[in-house]
Amino acid sequence: MTPVSAIKTRFAPSPTGHLHLGHLYAAQVAHDLARKLGGQYLLRFEDIDKTRIKDIYYDSILEDLYFFNLQHDAPPISQIQTDRLEAYSAAIEKLESLGVTYPCYCSRKDIFREISSLASAPHGNHLSAQYYPGTCKKLTSSERAERVAQGKIPSIRIDTDKARELTGSLTFHDLIYGEITVNHDILGDSVLSRRDIGTSYHIASVVDDAFQEITHVTRGDDLLESTHLHRVIQVLLDLPEPTYMHHQLILDDQNERLAKRAKSLSVKELRENGHTLDSLNSMINEQLKT
Ligand code: GLU
User: Fold this and answer.
1) pLDDT tens profile 38-49
2) Paired residues of 116 in beta bridges
3) Cα-Cα end-to-end distance for the chain
4) Atom 3 (ligand 1): residue with closest C-alpha?
5) Distance (Å) from CA 14 to ligand 1 centroid
């Protein structure tokens, strides 16, 4: 059992836009769980993708959180800092040394072409969207050397088959879904290190959850499949296993994720249109009932 004093949750928004009500609900879940368990609630800006972040969003996120009385317990850490990038590189190097990765030189176009030519192309969910047909896994060492000589920078993918051999059968515990068995088949040789930023959401999230000693990872159930990959990475990197809580997403009237909606639904704009704390909370509660 985790001692109560060590319990930590976190809200981890990406400063790539204003918060919408779904984000606010995610922050509330993390905050309320920490308060209920007598632990700490942390804020972490996930800002590894420099091409998409904007300075204005850090402030607007903080303003919305304060408006909702979601006061975090420690200063937010920013993942853009060089010392964190080194931690991510070290994690990727360790995975490389375990032999569970391979470099991938394919462009998006190459992958699309290859997938389209497959009769059984996968569809749908989060990780399958990153399904990769394994083109670069089959490269010979001379084919790899050729690409290196051409100056091509690879992304780094997880070799799911090798990862499965090393980890064996795994589970994780979710406060809503109960005990879940990791399904290696849905990992899809995901990218662990993007060639443009030298890491990925998966690596940064797992490494920073361990770094911040997060004991309870709460997030929307659209990320449930990612957690299968995160458990594999944790075991390979010998990192502690958090408890999970994948909560309901706030959807719009058309049952679409709010993230996809027009910016008129940002909390900032709703507030500017006169919504109070109570009316915004009622909107969240209404959506949760549907
Ligand atoms: N930055 C991620 C997001 O906004 C956080 C996901 C997580 O909580 O792990 O979706």
Assistant:
1) 999 999 999 888
2) none
3) 35
4) 13
5) 7
